[in-house]
Amino acid sequence: MRLLEVRNLHASVEGREILHGVDLDVNAGEVHAIMGPNGSGKSTFAQILGGHPAYTVTQGSVAFRGHDLLAMSPEERARAGVFLAFQYPVAIRGVTNAYFLRAAVNATRKSRGQEELGPLEFMDALEDKLKLIGWDASYLSRPVNEGFSGGEKKRNEILQLAVLEPTLAVLDETDSGLDIDALKTVAQTVDRLRRPESATVLVTHYYRILTHILPDYVHVLSGGRIVKSGTKELALELEQRGYDWLREEAAVG
Amino acid sequence: MTSGIEAQVLQPYKYGFITDIEADVVPPGLDENVIRLISGKKHEPEWMLEWRLRAYRHWVTLTEPHWSNLHYGPIDYQAISYYAAPKQKPKLTSLEQVDPKLLETFDKLGIPLEERKLLAGVAVDAVFDSVSVATTFRETLAKQGIIFCPMSDAIRDYPDLVRTYLGSVVPHTDNYFAALNSAVFSDGSFAYIPKGVRCPLELSTYFRINASATGQFERTLIVADEGSYVSYLEGCSAPMRDEHQLHAAVVELVALDDAQIKYSTIQNWYPGDEAGRGGIYNFVTKRGKCAGRRSKISWTQVETGSAITWKYPGCILQGDESMGEFYSVAVTNNRQQADTGTKMIHLGRNTRSTIVSKGISAGHGQNTYRGLVKILKGAEHARNYSQCDSMLIGHECGAHTFPYIDVRNSTAIMEHEASTSKIGEDQIFYCKQRGLSAEDAVSMIVNGFCKEVFKELPMEFAVEAQRLLGISLEGSVG
After folding, report:
1. Is B450 in Cβ contact with A100 (below 8 Å)?
2. Which value, to the nearest 10 degrees, does the dihedral of the CA atoms of residues B98, B99, B105, B111 take?
3. Are the CB atoms for A229 and A218 separated by under 8 Å?
4. How far off is chain B from A252, nearest CA to CA, in Å?
5. Which domains are assigned to chain A?
6. Chain-centroid distance, C-alpha A190
7. How far is B423 from chain A (nearest CA, A)?
8. Contacts of residue B434 in chain A, CB cutoff 8 Å?
9. Hey, are the CB atoms on A75 and B432 less than 8 Å from each other?
10. Do the Cβ atoms of B434 and A143 come within 8 Å?
11. What does B224-269 look like in DSSP terms, one character per residue?
12. Contact B444, A92 (CB under 8 A)
């Protein structure tokens, strides 16, 4: 089943065009890696899928399960099952992780006409998810991302991912700033969360996360366009050759 | 985007209605005759009138202070009426004799005065313009020797206590507005908790301004005798009127050896409209004296109303090992201005004080924290911890912090932390991307910011405080 259909997407920030026509199809059950050098527009692409108001789409379309994603507000997207794991998650003082997670889950449940979960029921459901990322319950009573290390923040994003069980997860450089062990835990968790009815778009600069989450497709974003698509072998080739050859290829082509 | 956030904080004022009731209002203006008139209306003893006149004679020598970070036009003290009371039977002995319109008014404000309807555990003194209209649970409290009554009654019925303590913490020479209040104060609450008694109810006073072109000048005095405990709550509101109205209150607290007073305020006077028309000028002097050893006074305030707020609830830590606390949330929106904070004066040995201040500015609001921590020479091993946090919503508002520290004893330990944050697009977007609406996101963020203060409030008040900030009950507090 087709989950995401991106067509000729052009987008700008502060009047400067960053994406110059991106096309992408993602089906249920697939993992797509979007790779590319710094400044290629990878993060812009992820933020646009999430609905960040600082980015303006100037041309093209994005459909999520056949619906116009761009017409939806960020919260509508989230409730419909689009999840963006942030590259720089923000801290929210005085609001516990447990409260935040439950508020997020209940916002979606409410929008679907389901009963909201009370604190106790919710805690029960959380236990397994915590285990998955190797955390104890003490993280639940800490304020959201406040005083968290870079690695803890990323892990917290994955905890949210595990709890919210989105249909489409967009991971924006979730691997950056992680040490090898943390990377392994985070990546393996994402891999374990794969479900046949959902899909993942993994935005990354590095190959190493892909050794834990095997992508079905790899796309190279360069200069605001997808300049090459392939399977996981392409990632390996990028690891060995870098990005420059593609830039040259794109310039020639 | 930010306008959405602001709209959330910018809740319409819900208490702006006017009660249509016949009132006994003295003509505007202030001189010694007006003071004699007020004193006469209250059937006060001669000593009280003398006390007022002394304050008045001092007040006329003073000029209005302008050192605060507040900007407002001149106040015409001769254009204000200093006494307004709803006309009713002269002597009230039961609620049946209270004008139903007044009961209805307090009902509408969420303060039912029939004891059976009241929240369990709260005794209320209801003050309407210049007079107290009802005080609940007086008899229940009296059984334990606790006095809780309107100040006017206390002056007549407990002259010794009143003469001993009135003006003992805030003398009429303290400042301009305290002098004015001492001269013209109308009603307010008086509470006395005898030795070793833990007050079984929360005591509370609800102040309502109704009449136009009048000022409200209430006076509250709470005395906690040795080893006693009391928690006191104060709430207030006023109709929406185009003119500014003056509110100049004085609150004095006295805690003797091992006594504890917890004083909580939710200040929700009419703040004026978006353009800054109308609203209450709130010039208040609140101070507690920890007179006894190991005594403790704790101020918690949530300031959401008033066009102008000028208020520094403080503690004089006189007794050795006494403790003072100040927890504050001040919100300024539209054209509101607040200059608020505390004074902690350490006199005794091993005295401790804690200050936690949260300022939230939105719209064109200007929020100033002004605090003084003074450690005097004899205050061996005094400690203070201060934390001042400001939050900005939007681009037109301001946050200012003026912490004054005066230490005269080298054994003192002082800690000061401060932060300024902005509810940014990124924070809101983060919450929205998890499915929360912008309103819920702002509520959650503001609530989390105020958490350390809200947890100091009694349960019902914490709920009220959250609601006032436009926050649902199911907040992140607790």
Report:
1. no
2. 10
3. yes
4. 39
5. 2-89+149-252 (3.40.50.300)
6. 10
7. 10
8. 78, 100, 103-104, 107, 160, 164
9. yes
10. no
11. E-TT-EEEEEEEEE----SSEEEE--EEEEEE-TT-EEEEEEEE--
12. yes
A52/B429 touch (CB, cutoff 8 Å), yes or no: yes
CB B224 within 8 A of CB B260: yes
Distance CA B324, CA B295 (A): 9
Q: What is the sign, positive or negative, of the torsion defined by CA atoms of A76, A77, A79, A84?
A: negative
Do residue A94 and residue B448 have CB atoms under 8 angstroms apart? yes
Burial of B162 per CB tally in 10 Å (0-12, 13-18, 19+): buried
* Pairing status of strand A55-64 against strand A67-68: antiparallel
* CB contacts, 8 Å: A54 with chain B: 425
**Residue-level pLDDT, tens digit, chain B, 478 residues:** 333 444 444 456 667 777 777 777 788 899 999 999 999 988 999 999 999 999 999 999 999 999 988 898 888 999 888 888 777 654 555 666 677 777 777 776 666 666 555 555 667 777 777 667 677 788 888 999 999 998 999 999 999 999 999 999 999 999 999 999 999 998 889 999 999 999 988 888 887 777 767 788 999 999 999 999 999 988 866 667 677 888 899 999 999 999 999 999 888 777 777 777 888 889 999 999 999 999 999 999 988 888 889 999 999 999 999 999 999 999 888 888 889 999 999 999 999 999 999 998 888 889 999 999 999 999 999 999 999 999 888 788 889 999 999 999 999 999 999 988 888 778 899 999 999 998 888 888 888 888 889 888 877 677 667 666 653 222 222 2
Contact call for B432 and A78, based on CB within 8 A? yes
Please give the backbone phi and psi of residue A55, each rounded to the nearest 5 degrees, phi first: -105, 135
Report pTM.
Answer: 0.82
**Chain B positions with Cβ closer than 8 Å to A:** 1, 421, 424-427, 429-438, 440, 444-445, 447-452, 476
Contact predicate B172/B22, CB 8 Å = no
CB–CB of B449 and A111 under 8 A? Answer: no
Q: Where are the domains of chain B?
A: 2-468
For residue A196, what are its two tokens? 């046949």
- A129 φ/ψ sector (left φ>0, alpha ψ -120 to 50, else beta): alpha
> Which residues in chain A have their CB less than 8 angstroms from residue B449's CB?
93-94
Of B424, B433, B440, the CB nearest to A84: B433
Check CB contact under 8 Å for A94 and B447. Answer: yes
Q: Are B297 and B314 in contact (CB under 8 A)?
A: no
Chain B CB contacts of A84 under 8 Å are: 433
Structure tokens at B299: 């101020």
- What is the Cα–Cα distance from B88 to B297, expressed in whole angstroms? 37
Residues of chain B in contact with residue A94, where contact means CB-CB under 8 angstroms, are 447-452, 476
Q: What is the ipTM of this complex?
A: 0.95
Tokens of B63: 């000029």
Chains A–B, number of C-beta pairs less than 8 Å apart: 82
Nearest CB partner across the interface for B433, out of A74, A92, A96: A74
